[in-house]
Amino acid sequence: MAKYVAAVDQGTTSTRFMVFDHGGKVVGFDQKEHEQIYPKPGWVEHDPLEIWQATQDVIRGTLNKLKIDVKDIAAVGVTNQRETAVVWEKATGKPVYNAIVWQDTRTDQICNELAKDGGQDRFRTKVGLPLATYFSGMKIKWILENDPSLKEKAEKGEILFGNIDTWVIWNLTGGPKGGVHITDVTNASRTFMMNLETLDWDPEMLAVLGVPRAMLPDIKASSQVYGYAKGDLEGIPVAGDLGDQQAALFGQTCYSPGEAKNTYGTGCFMLMNMGVHFRLSTSNLLTTMAWRLKGQPTYALEGSVFVAGAAIQWLRDELKIIRTSNESEALARSVPDSGGVYFVPAFTGLGAPHWDMYARGTLVGLTRGTGAAHIARAALEAIAFQSDELLQAMARDVGRQPDVMRVDGGATRNNLLMQMQADLSAIVVQRPRTAETTALGAALLAGMGVGLFDSPLAAQSHWRAESEFQPLMEEEDRRRALRGWRRAVERAKGWALEENGEG
């Protein structure tokens, strides 16, 4: 019997390959960052070829470190940054344009045009999503319109589209030499083109966006054998595929309706399991897929914070008030509070529940006594405040707030931030022993895809809490802090519109 399951975890800033034993323990990994490309204000791109090279490098790096027989890996799963769109030539594997990243806001005018007839929620009953620059269907439309010669090729299937999962799996299984062109329901649900009831591409949405069906991948379950790897993983079944946040939900064993997790990465992403029946949010959250297993769909509510860990990177790279992200905690702890400073890091607009693509980053409450430590503390609080907005929106949709929120992602190593979250949300925050829940979720689903595990419950027994943070803040202090945050958010909203004389 094979000893391991593995996952490619392709994220916004880096790519990892991780190998787990059957108990869900990490036995080895390698990681590599890739370039962030900013051609214009609000535009964010990645080089797809660099991402594929990084994927090969980390697979090779992990195998070299572990010195294991590849045949001991039962299956490999793929998880990915979701709404980032790639379009490439089928015959050569050459991208026709850089990958347009989920954070990118260049499609704002496309969204505005589509919203003129029916508003931002015009298609929500079909796709569960508001019209927003976030989703990859608008990015395909922009690419096809930016180069009119591509449309005919797309209609013939000579150029292909995929979110990053599709790009990685296509290359992993052979690329131009027979690579499989697939995606799963979770990634398809982030394109603005999949019907949440039929779980297939919706003809009306394809017509509205001008996207030919021939360029789209086939939509599969989140756990099944899609094909077999070439290269360093030669012959290993590729058997799991789901977006990074759904993978984290699975890895956090949130298998029952009402269970929620929050991932703290470049952005923050909170998902709550809704079970087998979906309902539309009345609180500006997304209705999306959690996963599909053995023909059975599971739905989720989702809220997205566009800038979370990226705000700490900004303190490091632009303000240069810290040298490493880890220093943010010590600096913030050096003052008892933020001194009345609020930081709204709306660098690329505001996500749920506001959905304001014209919001911009705002620092308010500054005085002559404000120092670097106050700004660092306000940046950490901003992550917790934004996450609390998502949690409260979910509570309104389902009628109650969960008692516990499970957390993962790099920023969860910051104990001050985790305590801030528990205090501001009045909720118990649990950090798991295995922090890499995104890769673990993809690896477990790959294992299910080849029959290693019969059901998600087989993974549940391996989950353990490493730390638990109890809410300690007085209720009146919490309410006062939340009132200040809401005032600060109002200052940030619509800023770019006013700047352009449109507000």
Structure, briefly:
The chain is of the alpha+beta class and about 500 residues long. Helices cover about 35% and strands about 25% of the residues. α1 (about 50-65) crosses α6 (about 165-170), α9 packs across α14 and α10 runs antiparallel to α12.
Write a structural description.
The chain has 503 residues and is an alpha+beta fold. 34% of the residues lie in helices and 24% in strands. It is built from 17 helices and 23 strands. Helix 9 (244-251) crosses helix 14. It starts with a strand and ends with a helix. The relative contact order is 0.13.
List the helices and strands and how they pair.
Layout: E1 4-10, E2 14-21, E3 26-33, E4 45-46, H1 48-66, E5 73-80, E6 85-89, E7 99-100, H2 108-115, H3 124-127, H4 136-146, H5 150-155, E8 159-163, H6 164-172, E9 182-184, H7 185-188, E10 194-195, E11 200-201, H8 203-209, E12 218-220, E13 223-228, E14 237-243, H9 244-251, E15 260-264, E16 268-275, E17 286-293, E18 296-305, H10 309-319, H11 327-333, E19 342-344, E20 362-364, H12 372-398, E21 404-408, H13 415-425, E22 428-432, H14 437-449, H15 457-460, E23 465-469, H16 475-492, H17 495-499
Parallel strand pairs: 1-5, 5-14, 9-12, 15-21, 21-22
Antiparallel strand pairs: 1-2, 2-3, 4-7, 6-8, 10-11, 13-14, 15-16, 16-18, 17-18, 19-20, 22-23
Helix pairs in contact: 1-6, 9-14, 10-12, 11-12, 12-13
